[in-house]
Design a protein that fits this description.
It is built from 10 helices and 17 strands. With 400 residues, it is of the alpha+beta class. The strands form 4 sheets. A 5-stranded mixed β-sheet has the order 3-2-1-4-8, with helices on one face. It has a 5-stranded mixed β-sheet with strand order 11-10-9-12-13, with no helix packed on it. A 4-stranded antiparallel β-sheet has the order 14-15-17-16, covered by helices on one side.
Length: 400
């Protein structure tokens, strides 16, 4: 698309721009005339701020897909899901490509672009535009930073000074194809290089050439870009306005029906909850629901005696004992979830293979007073998802 305009946002907030097909980027924000002539504005943002990954996921529609993505990649995240924004490709063969960025970071980028009079149609991490042809990892070297794309959904970015140490830490690093955009001597890299292109050209021009078919847009979901208005004649504006009005009316009608249905469902659930509480606690007066919800009432009853404290002590003591076993387990065994009831703790684990999972069970079973049983093992593409049930009631009864 010859009327595409590419911009690159550097980590320090500076901008450079290039028309599609250009060979040399220009510093600063593009002039207003250039922006007005562009039918699509693509902004490459710092890949160091964006996590790229791949998830096994299927969904019936786009809305369901975006809701499910955060939970599919939750074990890779270091920040709360609520503070992050997720964008994803369309599902293909049960897999989606995912990009994760902090909401505050994305909002800061958009605010900075808006202050410069720029309305982006597409935001994409610059690491996603580094070529990776036929599975060949590519290292893009610039004056002050480097971007390494190891696979379609695996990339990283760092300063040029950090690059040798970072490459040395990557295990089983395949031979690299290096694109060096600097006018400087060739870098000495602690890895195998299959091809090294010196003075490879302008970095933004190289990235723009690879960004013809963009796999995703960070302006997804609630950050979806608004279509920029074009002056194509008053007649088309009237048609668009009429269609918009019809859509709004339909949307309000559908929303009203949905609200009414949700209100009925909520009232029915509340009645069911009250009936369940009264059946479980027959000594209650139904008028107590005028002051407390069913959930509050059950929580208050559970917290009256020492049972709640004993339950907490039991699970904490058991976790304290099996914690070193999990921490010392070989093969990158991950704890996905746990459930504790009546002295029985059930762990949901992910292990690289069945042997690693069974080794964890054996080590737990060796703890005094613990019985460990492997209750489920489901092989998957990324390893084995399994469940181990730990019964510590024998030791508790001996102590009593």
């Amino acid at each position: 698309m010859s009327d595409r305009l590419f911009l690159r946002l550097a980590p320090d907030g500076s901008l450079s721009w290039l028309r599609a097909g250009g060979v040399q980027a220009q510093a600063g924000a593009p002039p207003a005339a250039v922006l007005a002539a562009a039918r699509e504005v693509v902004v490459l943002v710092p890949g160091s701020e964006v996590l790229l990954t791949r998830a096994s996921l299927t969904a019936r529609n786009r809305a369901q897909l975006l809701k499910a993505v955060p939970y599919a990649v939750e074990d890779l995240l270091l920040a709360p899901v609520e503070s992050l924004h997720f964008a994803a490709t369309a599902a293909h063969d049960g897999h989606v490509g995912v990009a994760v960025v902090a909401r505050d970071t994305l909002a800061r980028w958009l605010d900075g672009l808006g202050a410069a009079g720029i309305e982006a149609d597409v935001l994409v991490p610059d690491t996603l535009a580094v070529p990776v042809d036929d599975g060949q990892p590519t290292l893009l070297v610039e004056a002050d930073r480097a971007s390494l794309r190891l696979a379609p959904w695996a990339a990283l970015s760092c300063s040029l000074g950090e690059l040798p140490g970072l490459l040395a830490q990557i295990e089983s690093l395949p031979p690299l194809h290096v694109l060096d955009c600097r006018h400087a001597p060739r870098l000495a890299l602690p890895c195998t290089v299959v091809a090294y292109a010196e003075r490879a050209g302008d970095a933004l021009a190289l990235l723009a050439a690879q960004a013809r078919a963009l796999p995703l847009n960070l302006l997804d979901g609630e950050f979806a870009a608004r279509r920029r208005r074009r002056h194509d004649g008053a007649r088309w504006w009237r048609v668009a306005a009429g269609l918009a009005a019809a859509v709004v009316l339909l949307a309000f009608g559908a929303l009203g029906a949905q609200v009414w249905q949700l209100a009925r469902t909520s009232a029915q659930l509340d009645q069911d909850a009250r009936a369940a509480v009264l059946a479980t606690l027959p000594d209650l007066d139904a008028r107590v629901f005028d002051r407390l919800t069913p959930a509050q009432l059950v929580q208050s009853r559970l917290g009256r005696g020492a049972d709640g404290a004993a339950h907490a002590r039991g699970v904490l003591a058991l976790l304290e004992r099996i914690g070193p076993v999990l921490a010392g387990s070989p093969g990158q065994v991950q704890l996905r979830a746990l459930d504790y009831r009546n002295g029985v703790l059930e762990l949901a684990l992910r292990a690289p293979d069945l042997n690693a999972l069974d080794l964890v069970r054996e080590r737990i079973a060796m703890l005094p007073g613990c019985k460990a049983e492997l209750t489920a093992a489901n092989p998957g593409a990324d390893g084995v998802d399994g469940r181990i049930r730990i019964d510590a009631t024998a030791e508790r009864e001996a102590r009593q």
